[in-house]
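Question: does this match?
>
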Amino acid sequence: MARFARSIETKPFLEQRSHGDALFPVASYGNNRLDASTVLGCHWHREAEFISVVSGSARLQIEDCEHVLQAGDIAYISSSQLHAGKAEGCDCVYNAIVFDLEFLSSHSSDSAMLRYLSPIVRNELVLEQVFCGQDGQARSIIEAVQTAICENEQHRLGYELVVKAQLCLALGLMVRSYSRKGNPDQQVSYKTQRLKQALSYIHEHYAGKLTIAEISRYVGMSEGHFCRFFKQMTSRTPVDYINEYRIGKAAQLLKSTDRKIYDIAMDCGFYNLSYFIRTFSSYLGYTPSQFRSLAEWSDGEPIR
């Protein structure tokens, strides 16, 4: 299928889609591409996630920590952690697997659930976030994650057993060698809550005449402090993030509806059509009209 040469991925603050189903709450996402214009928008979900970098490199933000991942590296994102990503210097291809931690336990309470999985969910047991492919000790963890992703993509007979076993293996090895008792830093928790408030406010009010002053007042910060804080937490300015979110919404409407471009611009918070077209082109590399035309012959491929 055809791919857009330049694109943007902006996900809701709280991700709404289901990962897997009730009987097998695991979903893998293969060959996701990040380039200079692609952003994995800041979001969180109840499930845990492993991200495996296949080629290139990526800058991944988890809560208020930033990591650079190279090909062969993996990252672990715990339940409800804010995270975002972008390519680092060149195109990056990555795979991901998202899974419900409770799915890894048995139906009745067992020691694995009581001693490890529940404490991980409650942040009483904190796991390392990034594992380097050059680290021999981490090699078994990386291989287990990569096998789980591959098996879940191929759906061969018995894949459910293999996926579950490999995820348990990866977490078990992480608990053994890359874990510590949880001692949540109150300042980090405060920052995360403030960022979640700001993102939630943006996602609720993006269609209106949203201002930095308005968001700053909502989270109880001065404009200058808020701008510095937001850039530190997301690697983007508030204006950049708002524009990315609005453009992502506009792209979805252009792809899924036949509404007029002017109406879409207005509904996404752009009250000047020329500014909307310039901004859209700067983020996606196409005018809205060109983007809509490309979407019509892209055979329904989701915008990434």
Observations:
- Residues 124 and 183 are 7 Å apart (CA to CA).
- The mean pLDDT is 85.
- The first helix runs from residue 111 to 121.
- Residues 26-181 form a domain with the Jelly Rolls fold (CATH 2.60.120.280).
